[in-house]
Specification:
Oxidized Rhodanese, domain 1; 138 residues; 51% helix; elongated; alpha/beta; 5-stranded parallel sheet; 2 domains; single chain
């Protein structure tokens, strides 16, 4: 133990850097807002737990291809339409956007509004499409 303490004192800058990196990682994880799920996990949650898929993409992207039975609510209009999600409060909600960037912020907002089971699709619709899973057009 004494050797370890000597090492810590001698190399204090390594331990300071490690502590800063760990703090930054924890802060980043907290901002993400929700755990990520894979496309396969999303499918299982929809089938097993009656999860709701919330698609945040704009109308053109949504019409080009979306997950079947997803709820379309563009990110730009979310604040004025968020009350429409109240009926899904007791169900798991999986937030989906194009690449996964907006979904974390929306998931955090939903959690702040009292939604307990909120997830985001890791990689967004690009990940869904790269897994060659089905989409619906229109």
């Amino acid at each position: 133990m004494e050797l370890f303490l000597q090492f810590v004192v001698a190399k204090w800058y390594f331990f300071t850097a490690a502590a800063v990196l760990i703090a930054m990682l924890l802060a980043h994880e907290k901002r993400r807002g929700a755990p990520s799920v894979s496309p396969v996990q999303l499918s299982a949650m929809v089938n097993r737990d009656d999860a709701v898929v919330l698609d945040l993409r704009d109308a053109n992207e949504y019409r080009a291809g979306h997950i079947i039975d997803s709820v379309h609510m563009p990110f730009a209009k979310l604040s004025e339409r968020i009350s429409e999600l109240e009926r899904y409060r007791e169900r798991p909600v999986i937030v989906v956007c194009k690449m996964g960037h907006h979904s974390g912020a929306v998931a955090k907002t939903l959690r702040e509004k009292g939604f307990q089971r909120v997830f985001k699709l890791g990689g967004g619709m690009l990940e869904w499409q790269s897994a060659q899973l089905p989409t619906v057009r229109g």
